[in-house]
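Running this now, will post back.
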Amino acid sequence: MNPHDILKKYFGYDSFRPGQESLIEAILSGRDVLGIMPTGAGKSVCYQVPALLLPGITIVVSPLISLMKDQVRALNEAGVHAAYINSSLTEGQIEKAFSLACRGQYKIIYVAPERLPTYLFQDFARQVQISMVTVDEAHCISQWGQDFRPSYLNIVDMVAGLSVRPVVSAFTATATKEVREDIQCVLRLQEPKVLVTGFDRANLYFEVRNGGSKDAQLLEYIKEHRGESGIIYCATRKNVEAVYTALRMADIPVTRYHAGLSAEERKQNQDQFIFDERPVMVATNAFGMGIDKSNVRYVAHYNMPQSMENYYQEAGRAGRDGERAECVLLYSPQDVRINQMLLSNKEFREEMTDEEIGAVRERDAERLKRMTYYGTTKDCLRGYILNYFGEKAPRRCENCSNCLHEFVEEDVTDICRDIFQCIREMKWSYGAGTVAGVLHGSKAARIKSGGLDEISVYGRQSGVTEFRLKEIIRELAGMGLLEESDDRYTVLRLGEGAKDVLDGKQRIIMKFARPKEKKMPLPKKRAGVSGDLDSASWQLFERLRTLRLMIARETGVPPYIVFTDKTLIDMCVKRPKDKNEMLDVSGVGEAKYKRYGERFLEEIRKE
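Update: finished.
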């Protein structure tokens, strides 16, 4: 068999997605690879297909139990024998799994990085041929990445200890150029094929909402999307509990997930979300990695994450089926202070030097700044994200809130001069709130007690609101004309180029939303694989979804593992009449047809 045969037989697809085939060919030729592919781009196929063609076993190192279980369950449903080894199994179960693998039962074994140094794994590795070691979520091996896990360093020792070095393949969705280079170095990849397929997710709509009540906006948004599955991320457990309670009071079918809950409750809540019993999940960032739920229609961030890497990874859990989905950030300056507090309490490994810790803290602070600028920019949001990851982007994407909203340009040079003069006179030791207060002419005690009401620019911008002044200050910071300290209490300094503005050599033009602008409604598109479905087809789609849920409950697997929404939509478009036509539906492989195909054909024939 060749890769195309494997793809069709087990996964039900007629062709590879961009980048998949070239990585598979490189692996089959014996070459190491590093694939940087966005969530939903099909990273798993890049190692699962060659794993079935290579002579020995493929070891997939994966960071989370839920991720392994999901992947193994999906593989077994597709007719591929796979197993996982992690702390959820007893020693006896692990011994049995390794014994079956030694007898050729499994081609793919998922292993937690903590298990690699154990005697049982080391003994197993000496007995079998390991053709490939795959590192999933490879950014976890880089201390410059956003999710560094020391246990991932066990991979290096494991590969070095094998009698014959296997192919090493590594995959991640979010990695800057610096992190990509670090992954290659730490994993000791040998002349790898490095493929960055692009970070853009064209089906995702991005939106940032500033100001107003977060609770009111979120509740309104969830009600507008009633019946759809979504994830709401909060920075703290306290916020998770508050949002969860508010949504429950509003009769939203919601559940929650954070580290303060028992393992049993977390599992129960996660299952309720996956099985669409409670399609709305409120969670900290402890939730989501490895959750391959394909029909998440929105991801809303109640609080701003600490980095663009975190944000794009979490937001990217929407629309994994390729259908339209929304990513909404509810931004407020308070989010910055929350994240500064969380970063100041960050724990480091004992063996890290003070210099290394200082470098990581500096990078964390810079990431938070860049994330903050995303929350305040008036430019294209998609373009900002793509530029962050080193990818060129068009000036406008026409699928984000900034591109769809109307802005007016305003010359704010005089205001900026006063801001710079204020900071200079205050000896660069105050933050945006104080600067705005001084310029507006605030009579607050903190202004008077510090003698700040006596400086030359006090009250000079009394006709401008403090909110607008802080908005301009944030824009100046994003432009590099102001610098923000990395201290817990952020203070402002003049940046490079500020002198040109003060000397009258440069003018500053900024964009502002039109007064009383009404949010442009996002057009609702229910797009099928081959065009829009008519009302009769959507009725069929709902019947197929009901059947899928029934089968999922009977078999104990999530609905999206039976068939994804995209596969059901393709059934509605193609209306298969027999086995051959059903196998022509995207996502229907031979094993899944054998399990479920006839029941779906019967439902379609009722038309």
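The CA atoms of residues 132 and 542 lie 42 Å apart. More later if anyone needs it.
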